[in-house]
From TrEMBL:
GO molecular function: hydrolase activity
Coiled-coil residue windows: none
Protein name: NTE family protein
Native organism: Umboniibacter marinipuniceus
Residue ranges annotated for the PNPLA domain, each copy included: 6-166
């Protein structure tokens, strides 16, 4: 049985694909010995480390759009328009009170210290303080205060937090990147196949056509403030992810496009988990073929 360090990324509702990734790993005999998570990855990883993964799946798979809206406690205070108490209370009721140091596996939730501009690795203390700090998306979910420090979403600095796993003695490190340009799976060092000249010309022509547009009178609808904020955050995370993954190379990366779902579409949990399961299966099948297993 291969042991793994699992790195779960930041990405709002599309992070629910990570449920499917975990399911595939467990179904195929992998042993998760440590988890490092950021934002939604910290949430899912924390629930798994607390031994309540199946209960969480049953709950989140039943959520409908109205349920998600009811869990959204609007709050026009400083730092964000969602307070976050309702969803955290629901999770506390599901999981119970937990201290990180008492969990069955090693666990790190990554947040951002707003005033110091530094990463904070929560590896002890209250599990839900760590999760709440890690998921505090700027301008959306209010910042969280722990021991007098103000924390926001860890994705601001490290959307794919591999560094906390570097000291692990596991067989492999598996990372989930939720800020890719397209949903695919590959080994980290795999190079894309070269395009033929005709394919290159075709793609260039298509790009120019898209750039120029077919209708000069086309009216472009500008996105709203929240959409602009979320898309800007996603683009920033894409750039940071590329840098982090180049610095710390995991053995396997599962990649999911940043437009796979909107940030708030948590009612699509089952659909997204199924996508995650299939991508994990395809990745590991390809890796086995490459290694002649």
């Amino acid at each position: 049985m291969a042991s793994i360090s699992l790195v779960l990324g930041s990405g709002g509702a599309r992070g629910l694909v990570q449920i499917g990734v975990i399911d595939w790993l467990l179904d195929n005999g992998y042993e998760i010995e440590s988890i490092s998570g950021c934002s939604v990855g910290a949430l899912i990883g924390g629930v798994y480390a607390a031994g309540k993964f199946e209960e969480f799946k049953s709950w989140v798979f039943e959520l409908e759009k109205g349920d998600v809206l009811r869990l959204t406690d609007l709050h026009w205070g400083a730092g964000g328009f969602i307070k976050g108490d309702r969803v955290m209370n629901a999770l506390r009721s599901l999981v119970g009170a937990k201290q990180i140091e008492e969990l069955d596996i090693r666990y790190t939730a990554v947040a951002t210290d707003l005033h110091r501009g530094q990463e904070k690795w929560f590896q002890s203390g209250d599990l839900f303080d760590a999760i709440r700090a890690s998921i505090a998306v700027p301008n959306v979910l209010s910042p969280h205060v722990v021991n007098g420090r103000v924390y926001v979403d860890g994705g601001l600095l490290n959307p794919v937090p591999i560094a906390p796993t570097l000291a692990d003695h596991t067989d492999m490190t598996v990372a989930v990147d939720l800020a890719a340009r397209s949903t695919q799976s590959r080994r980290h060092n795999e190079q894309p196949k070269a395009l033929k000249n005709t394919e290159k010309r075709g793609r260039i022509a298509s790009f120019i056509a898209d750039l120029m547009g077919d209708n000069d009178d086309e009216v472009v609808e500008l996105p709203g403030v929240l959409d602009i904020s979320n898309r800007s955050f996603d683009i920033m995370q894409t750039v940071i992810s590329r840098t982090k993954l180049a610095t710390h190379s995991p053995d396997v990366i599962f990649e999911f496009a940043r437009d796979l779902s909107a940030t708030h579409e948590f009612w699509r949990a089952k659909e997204l988990a199924d996508i995650g399961y299939q991508v994990a299966a395809n990745t590991m099948k390809q890796q086995a073929a490459d290694e002649g297993i």
